[in-house]
Structure formats: structure tokens, C-alpha cells
Amino acid sequence: LQKLIHLLQATDDPLIQEQALITLSNSAAFSVNQDIIRNLDGLSVIGGMLSDCAPKVKEKALNALNNLSMNIKNQEEIQVYITQVCGSVESAPLNSGLQLAALRLLTNMSVTSDYHYKMINSIPCFLRLLSEGIERTQIQVLKVLVNLSANPAMTRHLLRAQV
């Protein structure tokens, strides 16, 4: 895991970055690896890949963060990327793998109400995706919206959102 994280830092080759991120993502399916990756500063390295220009690299980074977000301590570090992830949902091509990966991460990050406030500005986008997206996009958006609606503090934001 340490070598993969160092490889991500050392290369600019998108193909190598994608493969390293896929491997880290698969490794993060095991809870013991989630802690190891966090302790090796892997979350910030992977989070740094969200600024990458290559959409496939961003998508793989989002998938890795999604798997890593199953851990409360990891969520505390990943939450700094929520605004950027919301921006990816809004700017990604409609129904793209990138958009879906960002929505999946937001679904996990919205299971608890701790970070809902960081998603408020994206509510109009989420509602727009309900009407414009295909079924799999709509389902993923609904998961985020259901999580947000479980928080009474979000009621006003959800009901007042301009669609």
C-alpha cells in the first residue's frame, strides 16, 4: 500500500495513476487496509488526484475515496473534499462514470448528518439530475437526497431549492 501511494505521488502518467487507484480502491474493501491507507497519508494523496485533469483518474480517485469512506475516521479527513466532489457532480458530463462516482461518494458521506451543510449549495443540481439523468443517476441522486432529508436541519434547504 505504501508503494502504491508513493507511486501515485511520483508519476504523472494517467494510466499508471488509474491502475494504482484501482488497486488502492480494491484494497480499501478491507477495513484493516482503510486504517493503513489513512495512516500512510493516502487519503490526502488520493484526494489530491481529484484536481487531476484526466476524468478517468478523477473517477478512480472518487471510487477509492468512496471505499475508504466506510470508516468514520476516514470520513473526518475525506470531508474536506465534499465541496470539490459536489463540483464534480455539477461539472461532469450527465450520466458519466465520473458523475456517478462522485454521487456514490456523496451518498456515503451523507449517511450521517455531520457534513450535510457542505452539500446545501448542490441541492438544486441534485434535483435537476432527477429530471435529466438516466435511471442509475436518478437512483444515486435519490440516495443522497434521502440521506439529506433524514436531517431536520435540511428540510428548509430541500423545500426552498430552486429547480
UniProtKB/TrEMBL annotation:
InterPro entries: ARM-like (IPR011989), ARM-rpt_dom (IPR006911), ARM-type_fold (IPR016024), Armcx_regulator (IPR051303). Its main location: mitochondrion. It comes from Nycticryphes semicollaris. Coiled coil: none annotated. The gene is Armc10. SUPFAM superfamilies: ARM repeat (SSF48371). Residues 1-163 form the Armadillo repeat-containing domain. The keyword Heme does not apply. One of its GO terms (cellular component) is mitochondrial outer membrane. It is found in: Mitochondrion outer membrane. Keywords: Membrane, Mitochondrion, Mitochondrion outer membrane, Transmembrane, Transmembrane helix. This is ARM10 protein. It is a single-pass membrane protein.
